[in-house]
Amino acid sequence: MKNRYLTSIFAPLLAMLVFLAILPACSNGGDTTSKPVSLSEMAFATAVDALNRPLDKKSYFPSGTPKIYCCVKVSNAPSDTEITADWVYIKGEDITAESVLMDRRSVKVDGTRYIAFSFSYSRPDTLWVKGEYKVVLYINGVPKVQGPFVIQ
């Protein structure tokens, strides 16, 4: 009789303890929202590695530089996230032009990784115009970060 009484009390308590032990493993820690997409570690370079990380970070380039890369780390991007880069000539040697959009490139990404956009002239005898430039980076059409560089 005493064993039956103990079993009727402890069996439900044991089941409750097992349920409470398993519950945290089934939940997402109470976080019902995903982390937002972010851009970080923006840098300019003349070369990138196989993972699109800058090999020689710079903010000043000679006018004869054949190609400049804008590298950035994308974090927490759901599939089909669009990252766009606007290459803008701000001001400088060409006094007839200010804040001119030189190029716009976009790429679809997902996850966390580095991406690199590059800009170069199509003819080998064309040089960069000396002055101030910037690249503006967008996530799905919304401007998020920008970075300056100079051509000397």
What does this structure look like?
- With 152 residues, the chain is of the alpha+beta class.
- The protein has one domain (38-151): Immunoglobulin-like.
- The chain contains 1 helix and 6 strands.
- It has one helix at residues 2-26; strands spanning 38-45, 60-61, 67-92, 100-120, 131-139, 142-151.
- Strands 1, 2, 3, 4, 5 and 6 form a 6-stranded mixed β-sheet that branches.
- The protein is elongated, with a radius of gyration of 27 Å.
- The chain starts with a helix and ends with a strand.
- Residues 16-20 and 22-32 have low confidence and may be disordered.
Say how many strands there are.
Answer: 6
Q: Percent range for helical residues?
A: 10-25%
| CATH architecture group name | Sandwich
The CATH topology is Immunoglobulin-like
Oligomer: single chain
Supply the number of structural domains: 1
Structural class: alpha+beta
In round numbers, the mean pLDDT is 84
Write the layout of secondary structure elements.
Elements: H1 2-26, E1 38-45, E2 60-61, E3 67-92, E4 100-120, E5 131-139, E6 142-151
Parallel strand pairs: 2-6
Antiparallel strand pairs: 1-3, 3-4, 3-5, 5-6
Key structural traits:
alpha+beta; six-stranded mixed beta sheet; elongated; Immunoglobulin-like; single chain; 16% helix; 50% strand; 152 residues; 1 helix
